[in-house]
Amino acid sequence: MLQGHGKVGEQARSFRLTMSAPEITLWQVLRCRPGGFKFRRQHPSGPYVADFYCHEARLVIEVDGEAHNHGNRPERDASRDDWFADRGMTTLRIAATDIQKNIEGVTSHILTTAASRHTGEE
After folding, report:
1. pLDDT in tens, 62-91
2. Which regions of the chain are under pLDDT 70?
3. Residue 112: left if φ>0, alpha if ψ -120 to 50, beta else—which one?
């Protein structure tokens, strides 16, 4: 399983205590193992903390608020996505507003993506 290094584990623990409202909403669904998939929240992964991670599908889920559209965030996000891709993972970016407006649709999209990536190995 992919693990963080250095102080990333401490950072992940801190992030679990300060999750945004959309992250909490999504976690309430993902923690119940929809579709039989186990998700981890604020999972340390190398130099990063993934908002959510499903190991069996090698799927990273990032909840993007409005800040992800400004400044150097798009470039930083692309670099982060490339880092995960180089390790065989897919990053699924979901707008925070989509979670608040259509949690059922978001959940369906996540499960469809996880199922298409599932290798059957743990």
Report:
1. 998 765 454 667 888 899 999 999 999 999
2. 1-6, 9, 66-72, 119-122
3. alpha
Q: Which of 21, 24, 111, 108 is nearest to 59 (CA)?
A: 111
Burial 92-104 (b: 16+ CB within 10 A, else e): bebbbebbeeeee
Contact 25, 103 (CB under 8 A): yes
Closest CA to 84 of 120, 107, 55, 119: 55
How far apart are alpha carbons 75 and 91 in whole angstroms?
Answer: 15
Distance of CA 97 to the CA centre of its chain: 16
Q: How far is Cα 40 from Cα 68, in angstroms, rounded to an integer?
A: 22
Q: Where are the beta strands (DSSP E) in 1-122?
A: 40-45, 48-54, 59-64, 90-95
